């Protein structure tokens, strides 16, 4: 109990308890419609490298997939966020990367074994395992908070495609991108939603040609190119850029796992590869790095 109190006090002093009294000045991204979302993800050699917060971005005391974590990141820098919706037992979409509660909360067992009400008895833990006062948010809570603040890239943790399609059809949240794992999934959303933007894996020429044959317009995607920009695939990146498509590398499973003293060197090496977007668990560590192209 004493440990929880100490962490709670530390969070308060650091601005962690934002709750309904968000007072920090934020670096916001305002997206009102499809055109503005397309403009944000349209390649230009003049655009600086964008840093995307994987699972909302993390700092000590700030758990992944949590509104205060996104808030904290935006208080430091502009960013958009990859987040992970998952269904509870009573079909409420909550933010949780893992199928189980064990790693990131004080709970145990599968998310799908609890109703939303039951899951609220647990508290979120930060990356170091420290228990915080924060609860597991619903997707709608995150989206409502993020209006006129940022963009969300929704991963899919076994959520029925129809649910995401229905969410887009409501036209309430124009600041959403959907990550897909196949051309079949990409076509499902594109054929049903006239305002969808997709994050599609295109890391080699075969994947490029497969997407090209899908018939989905190039101005409806951002390309995830893998864990790093690969000089051997420069021809693919050049073609994507020619179509106005931005290329994103993702470093949470590679550079983010380096010892803290080695991360900066790793980040600088990837920046030198000139991705358009870098997705990371630790967006704040990119502050001060040379992101201008």
Salient structural properties:
TIM Barrel, alpha/beta, two-stranded antiparallel ribbon, 293 residues, eight-stranded parallel barrel
CATH topology: TIM Barrel
Mean pLDDT: 93
Share in helix: 25-40%
Structural class: alpha/beta
What is the distance, rounded to the nearest whole angstrom, between the alpha carbons of the first and last residues? Answer: 49 Å
**Radius of gyration (Å):** 19 Å
- The backbone outline, from C-alpha atoms, is globular
Could you state the order of secondary-structure elements as H and E? HHEHEEEHHEHEHEHEHEHE
**CATH homolog superfamily:** Phosphatidylinositol (PI) phosphodiesterase
Count, helices: 10
Summarize the biggest pleated sheet.
8 strands, parallel, barrel
Overall tally of domains: 1
Strand content: 5-15%
- Uncertain regions spanning at least 5 consecutive residues: 1-22
Biggest sheet, spatial arrangement of strands: 1-2-5-6-7-8-9-10
CATH first level = Alpha Beta
CATH architecture: Alpha-Beta Barrel
Work out the number of β strands.
Answer: 10
Summarize the structure.
The chain is an alpha/beta fold and 293 residues long.
Your description of this structure?
The chain is α/β, with parallel strands linked by helices and 293 residues long. It has one domain: TIM Barrel (Alpha-Beta Barrel), CATH 3.20.20. The chain has ten helices and ten strands. The strands form two sheets. The protein has an eight-stranded parallel β-barrel with strand order 1-2-5-6-7-8-9-10. Strands 3-4 form a two-stranded antiparallel ribbon. Helix 6 packs parallel to helix 7 (183-192). The longest helix is centred in the C-terminal third of the chain and has 13 residues, at 260-272.
